[in-house]
Amino acid sequence: MVRRRCGRHRVRVGAGQRSRGRLAGLAVALVAATACMVEPVGAPTGPAEPPAPASPSTEVTRADGTDTVEEFEQDMADATRLAERYWAEYFRASGRSFQPIRRIIPYERDGEISCGGQEVPRNNAVYCTVSDYIAYDVNWSFRAFRQIGDAFVFYLLGHEYAHGVQTRLGIRYEFTIQQELQADCMAGAYLGDSVRAGTLTLDEGDLDEFNEGLLAVGDDPGQPWFAEGSHGTPEQRSEMFFRGYERSLAACDLG
Fold first, then answer.
1. pTM
2. 62-96 burial string, b = 16+ CB within 10 Å, else e?
3. Percentages of the chain per state (helix, strand, coil), in multiples of 5
4. Neighbours of 136 (CB within 10 A)
């Protein structure tokens, strides 16, 4: 059994053990920059535009000397593998074939990669529909990993992977907020169902930490719900995540 710590509690994925910063310590400024650059939903086309593989910088790695680049990379790989397994089983049960998202790409600089001709900025994690990849700013993600814990990695990957599944299912919405809240629900279902299946283990207190983190990443007060890029209020994001966590995909209106 591989063990991962989240705050004072463990997130375990199917062996190693380590401590994490508390999810309650999440800084709004750190995560509020997260955006999901999703082109109009449709069949993925065209090649991805990947940079050379990136790793967190040494300067960031030595922030407090307790968590390593290797641990972060392993957690990202674990989260990816768990998501691929989860969604492959869902598609198989519904009589459809499933193709995993083509690539998970770490990057470091503004404009290092692009999606449909649009540069991907730093301090971000995105799913690119036109090239079918997830990209994440590796240094920003690693800082969040250090501050929040490995739960952040599993939620982040789960949310962006959900956008890839929306594409595969042909789900289209008029407003961004509808797509984003559904992805939060799907991320919750992926984690909740994985816990119920025994492929992921959360210890007592981890759900409270998830809630605290989700409440910190909602849209700023006054953000119009109909604006392009809106993700939902803190309360909406937490509600949708836990709706999926508790009730599985039946709560996510996948059709």
1. 0.79
2. eeeeebebebbbbbbebbbebbebbbeebbeeeee
3. 45, 10, 40
4. 24
DSSP string computed for 152-198 = HHHHHHHHHHHHHHHHHHT---SSHHHHHHHHHHHHHHHHHHHHHHT
Mean pLDDT of 220-244: 86
Average pLDDT, the chain: 77
Asked if residues 33 and 46 have their Cβ atoms less than 8 Å apart, the reply is no
Six-digit token pair at 104? 């998970």
Residue 194 near residue 244 (C-beta atoms within 8 A):
no
Question: What is the phi-psi region of residue 189: left when phi exceeds 0, alpha when psi lies from -120 to 50, beta otherwise?
Answer: alpha
Instruction: Kindly state the tokens that stand for 163.
Output: 């956008």
